[in-house]
Write a structure and sequence with these properties.
Blueprint (H helix, E strand, L loop, with lengths): L2 H8 L26 H10 L15 H4 L2 E7 L4 E4 H8 L4 E6 L4 H21 L2 E10 L3 H8 L5 H7 L2 H4 L8 H9 L3 E6 L2 H10 L6 H5 L11 H10 L22 H29 L4 E8 L8 H8 L4 E8 L8 H7 L2 E9 L3
Parallel strand pairs: 3-6, 3-7, 4-5, 4-6, 7-8
Antiparallel strand pairs: 1-2, 1-8
């Protein structure tokens, strides 16, 4: 794959597990999940390659079909915890960042169960629970508010937040959490970043932005310990990033960026994405602290301790924990293994289905 093609593929959000979604309109995805068969098939089709297997439609009850028994693992001391004990620990935090694979129904089921458990504990602890959404652009906050206030259907919500073009993963993966918030009076918080922002940073780099673009960015820290190492490990796992080929756009000097310079631009865009979501999350918590808690649903690399959690803590003295769903018998995968080892809590899914 030439670099120019790869920029189109990665520049809206890059990292294989990091983030955002796949756009069905311009076919420029914001990220990939490491093991997304659906998106691998779509990319093959874009390049004129035959699909090895047909892409299956996502059923409306895809998350319910993934129901299974869950338990917890605290990675600091390798303590195995019951699901209820894990939720009690999580309920003591100000923010809980759950790293998902966007098209993995089992990850979405783990998120749903966590949201349900924290909503149940709200009655005893007296907090407002917000659900922070990477997949909804912040400019659509009013559409989310209209939905939780009632009178807006799921189909209308999809349209009102431009789900198909701004995010692209099937709404069936996220619908159960939206419905839970609606029925049980949770708050929905749009954390997503406008696509053009990350596109510009990934193709031009921070140095190539104009002053107005720079002023619109959140406060950035490009030197969080360990964050770049996580990024590099995940990018190493991404096939096709070559040091030869033509670049999409040169830097301020006009020269075509090298392989290393392009990686730097992707990293800068990743930091912009993390910082913007962290800023919005911190602002929402601050408005009525300590009477609020926030569950953040975002890509697995975004919820790594060095990503959104560290950047929320830099803005205010909040307690933020990182949570990663995984299967008990999950096979080893390049890049993801590091995430599994460095998250603070794992939500471990039994291989046998839960009782419906």
């Amino acid at each position: 794959m030439r670099i120019s093609s790869l920029v189109t593929t990665l520049s809206l959000g890059f990292l294989s597990v990091a983030c955002a979604g796949a756009n069905r309109g311009d076919r420029g995805p914001i990220g990939r999940t490491l093991d997304s068969e659906r998106h691998a098939a779509e990319e093959s089709a874009e390049q004129g390659e035959p699909e090895s297997t047909p892409v299956a439609e996502v059923p409306d009850d895809v998350v319910q079909q993934a129901a299974a028994e869950l338990s917890g693992l605290r990675t600091a001391d390798r303590a195995a915890l019951s699901f209820e004990t894990t939720m009690t620990y999580l309920a003591s935090a100000d923010a809980i960042c759950i790293g998902e694979r966007h098209d993995d129904a089992a990850d979405h089921y783990a998120e749903l169960r966590t949201v349900q458990a924290l909503l149940e504990r709200r009655r005893l602890r007296g907090y407002e629970l917000g659900i922070g959404l990477e997949m909804v652009n912040a400019s659509y906050q009013s559409a989310l508010q209209s939905y939780v206030e009632g009178g807006v259907s799921d189909a209308a919500l999809e349209e009102n937040v431009s789900w198909g073009t701004e995010w692209g993963f099937d709404f069936s993966y996220s619908r159960p959490v939206f419905r839970e918030s609606l029925v049980r009076f949770g708050s929905l918080v749009a954390l997503g970043v406008p696509r053009q922002v990350t596109r510009d940073v990934a193709t031009k780099g921070l140095a190539g932005l104009n002053p107005n673009q720079r002023r619109a960015l959140p406060e950035l820290d490009l030197h969080v310990a360990g964050h770049r190492a996580v990024f590099d490990a995940l990018m190493t796992a991404h096939p096709g990033l070559e040091s030869s080929g033509e670049a999409a756009q040169g830097g301020p000097s006009g020269h075509a960026p090298s392989h290393a310079e392009q990686l730097d631009r992707f990293y800068e865009a990743q930091v912009v994405w993390d910082e913007a979501m962290a800023e919005r999350a911190a602002n929402w918590l601050t408005q009525r602290y300590p009477g609020r808690k926030l569950v953040i649903l975002a890509g697995a690399a975004h919820c790594h301790p060095t990503a959104i959690p560290a950047r929320i803590r830099r803005r205010a003295a909040f307690t933020v924990v990182s949570v990663l769903p995984k299967a008990k018998d999950e096979p080893s995968q390049p890049g993801r293994d590091r995430l599994v080892s460095e998250y603070e809590y794992l939500l471990v899914r039994d291989s046998s289905p839960a009782a419906r």
